[in-house]
Design goal:
about 800 residues; globular; Rossmann fold; 5-stranded parallel beta sheet
Amino acid sequence: MEAELAALASSGATALVGLMVSESWDRAKLRLARFFAQHGRPGPEGATDEDLQSARDELRSARQADDTGAAADIEAEWRQRLRRALREDPAAARELRSLLTELAHEAGVEWDASPHAEISGGVQNGPVFQNTQIHGGIVFQAQPPAPLDAKPDQVPARTSRFVNRTEELLALDGFFTALADGSPHIDIGALDGLPGVGKTAMACRWAEKSRNLFPDGQIYVDFAELRGTGGGADVFEAVGMCLRALGVADAYLPQSLTERTQLFRSHSAGRRILLVLDDVDQPAQVRALVPKGPGSAVLVTSSSRLGELAAVEGARLMSLEPLDAAGGLKLLAARCGQQAVDDEPAAAEQLVGLCAGLPVALQVAAARLMSTRRLTMAALAAELADETGRLAALSLRGEHSVSAVFGTSYAQLPPDAARLYRLLGWVPGRTFDTGTAAVAAGLPPATAQDLLDVLDDASLLEATPDGRYRMHGLVRLHARECAADEESPAARRQLIGRVTTHYLALTAFADRAVRADRLRIAELSEVIGGAPDPFASPSAPRPLAWLEAERPNILAVLREAAQQGLHTPVWQLSEAFTVLFLHRRHLRDWMESLELGAASAAAAMAPAAEGRLRSLLSRPLMDLGEYDRARTELDSAVACAEIADHTALRASVQELLGRYLDHADPSRAAAAYQRSLELNESAGERRGAAIAAYFLGRAQDRDGDSAAALTTLRHAHAGLTACSDLRMAARVTAATGEVHDHLGDTEEAVRALREAAVALRAQEATHYEAQALVLLAGIAQRPGNDRSTARADLTRALEIYEAGGSPLADALRERLRDPEDLS
């Protein structure tokens, strides 16, 4: 029912703004005013009449000025008013639909009068699973993430009307002089101020109204999401996010910050883009993300004044101050309606004073007024005046600056909503969904959704466009304070245990959906046994896409669970989580996950798990160039595998040792791969044996024994085909082609490489397809060989590399420019 009412409010607001600019407006206004007088907040009939006329005048002015943002603000405001009216009186939906249908018909305004959602029962849609029994009676459902647009458009949309800050917005226009004079330099503007003062809202508003100045798109990075990684990893990942937004695939992201920064400059050089960097806390986070394209700009928000950024980079700084009395009243009027402010002018002024003009505090106060029909401004002002420590709380010293405002709102929550609010403060991660909230509180999903709506209406939660929720940092701290005061000492550890098991179940299903026969130490039948696979339905998201979307939250869960001493679920989750990093190389996140898992496995005295995780840890360490640490972890893994007497694990460790030796001592690598092959065969691990044979064959070929390599690779191909691992089998075919080429059998080399390229394309393994095509072109370009396919092969390889942003694309372009070399 709630979804149907929300859909009606949305389509009704669209019809309403259409009526405002129609010739039938005067008659429509009178009938709409009566509707709001009967079903909206109490007040004289003329109150909404005046609001409607004011909105119509503002809308016409916005359209004449071609200000689409202001027009959208007006529609959003009336969408909220309609939703409130329908929530307070759901029976009014039929009357509203009939009224708008009649008025729209008379005015010639198009609108869809049919319901947009029918909800019966307790199924709720979100980005996680709420429709499949997983664990503990909780139901889950997943949605795939939105596909990446070719032109980035990442700045968050505003869901409420933006008021005030007119002078500040004009000042921002003056910051970015390169946009007006066509000079090649890059302008940087930085907004600083107290938490909750509205820096992000202002940055998003300026980005929205300046959209036409940046034809190549807008990129958004929230450093609050990246904070806590330390060691510059936040900057490293932020540059990666920007490169992905510009079309660079994960496979081609450099593994050093310097190289990533250089690649970002190259990819931004021909573009005119805006970067909005939110919640920055140090200048270094900005320097690495300054684009190179003339006319581009960087807009930064920070709780600190970035004086060094101004001195070194020439950034223009602006400090946002709390609203003055007039601005605070305007914000109250935008949220509650001008008539509500006019009815209680003294109380409204007192509220603005008690909230010290801080927008976040005023928004919480307005949410209280709008969600509770009988609450007046005078009554709310009296509550704030009696709050112990209110002045200190509203002094905005540190992160507790508005806790009294949040406490006032919290005190008005129903007991069950207040309990959920407290517990959500303990949930790891910056965002969460209905399923996670339900697990955290031990509630059915439908009940949790109802309570989340209560918290959302009270402005204690922020709903994100993808159906998730997040708590402002100050709100989260307040919720934690309440939980510490009102919950039992053991409650936090119990909650973290439930949430960890929740993510363990989902991650385990995703892991098995990607590859069912991968080596695993954890036996998770108690967690997922008997439950249907939530990734099996046609509408389910791709497992890797889900894991990618949940990556920050899973890492946060691992950190918190480790601190709580939940060692067994930590190492189990770390092992299952590895499947993401085998396909998408977020090296630092992978390393942290494995470090937490290995330490927990050691604490749980699980040597097999510790050996597995330490051996896997060698892979990101080697990719990051930390070979000494990789060898240390592999030595520990060898010892753990021997203690556990786990043959398949010993085989896996030997394979990973071989990969290390490929770099450190190539002459010994083949022996490690041979040992891995033998141990896998002894353990009955056919796929593991085939993969070991693949690496062994490549090592033999590198060592000059191509004939032996050919035999080994044929064995690997047969094993992988039998295991239905078509992607790895195609890679073996490509390796076989290279061996034939080294043996001088050009015809067979070409046949095998062509077969591999076709198979890899079918498996969407385009990176390896391109490698095979480049090898084919290289053979074709030798004297006396058939060159008829060389240009087509290189052109296809170039398409692949360009689509992924590979640095190898430049070399292919040069080869394609030489007509003699390809003729």
